[in-house]
TrEMBL record:
Pfam families: BTB. PROSITE patterns: BTB (PS50097). SUPFAM superfamilies: POZ domain. Residues 245-267 are annotated as: Disordered. Residues 41-108 form the BTB domain. Coiled coil: none annotated. This is BTB domain-containing protein. Gene3D superfamilies: Potassium Channel Kv1.1, Chain A.
Length: 267
């Protein structure tokens, strides 16, 4: 359980990944970040009212949501307190890490839920750069491990159909169904049973189209040149109108990419 108040320098930066920036009264202008003298804003997050702090100028510069929220004349602008009752404390911590360090780190997580929740928050905050970095992280993860039915279920319940994350999850899930049919998976009997139980539960959801899933899986199975969705970065990135990625970020390979996928559980 997180403490009730998370100061920026103590809690927002894992020591193993970041060089902590200290700001002292005798720092030179060259060494002091441009936002260092900005007022501190307190973010009150979730039902537990977990508090995080961040520099106001950085919030405004990096995040359109806060640029609007902290404009002159608003209650939040006057109090430097923003309440986020519907958001998750751990996800907001990832947001703070990103605005200070341009960094996405989910190396300790065994499933895609943390990344997916962060993506939903990035979309809410209007942060396209963060969305794309999170998308890249999810693509890398889902190339190593199969998309789990529980992850697809969460997507269906929490992400709108037009969202790139929604499209990637269902596309990759169908692509990997073709891989499973071809035997490109290493898993124990227990893992296989849990996976198929999860698929059965997923098929009971009104929002999940089993016929579409089977149709797409068969299309991938019959196309020897099919490109794995998780290799098509630009297709699932968000861009300003008329722009595309500077690099395609994909490699044209066969469905198994020369290696067998590893099964995992979502627990």
């Amino acid at each position: 359980m997180a403490s009730s108040n998370h100061t920026l320098w103590e809690n927002a930066m894992p020591e193993r990944d970041f060089e902590v920036i200290s700001i002292s009264s005798d720092s030179s202008d060259e060494d002091t970040p441009s936002f260092a003298m900005s007022p501190i804003v307190t973010l009150v997050v979730g039902d537990g009212k977990v508090e995080y702090t961040a520099h106001r100028q950085l919030l405004v510069d990096k995040c359109p949501f806060f640029a609007k929220c902290l404009t002159s004349g608003t209650k939040e602008a006057n109090t430097n307190v923003v309440t986020l009752p519907e958001d998750d404390a751990d996800t907001v911590r990832h947001f703070i890490d990103f605005i200070y360090h341009n960094h996405v780190d989910f190396t300790k997580e065994r499933n895609g839920f943390g990344r997916m929740k962060a993506y939903a928050l990035a979309e809410k905050f209007g942060m396209q750069v963060w969305q794309n970095k999170l998308m890249n992280s999810l693509m890398k993860f889902w190339k190593m491990y199969f998309v789990q039915p529980a992850e697809v279920s969460w997507i269906l319940d929490n992400i709108h159909e037009s969202c790139p994350l929604h499209r990637l999850a269902l596309d990759q899930f169908s692509f990997q169904a073709a891989q499973r049919f071809e035997g490109a998976v290493e898993s124990s009997e227990r893992e296989e049973r849990e996976y198929h139980d999860g698929v059965d539960a997923l098929c009971m959801k009104e929002k999940f189209s089993a016929s579409r899933h089977v149709r797409e899986a068969m299309r991938y199975h019959n196309d020897s040149k099919a490109i794995q969705p998780a290799e098509q970065r630009c297709r699932y990135h968000v861009h300003p109108e008329g722009e595309t990625c500077s690099r395609k970020g994909r490699v044209r390979k066969g469905k198994d990419n020369g290696s067998r996928k590893r099964q995992r559980t979502t627990h």
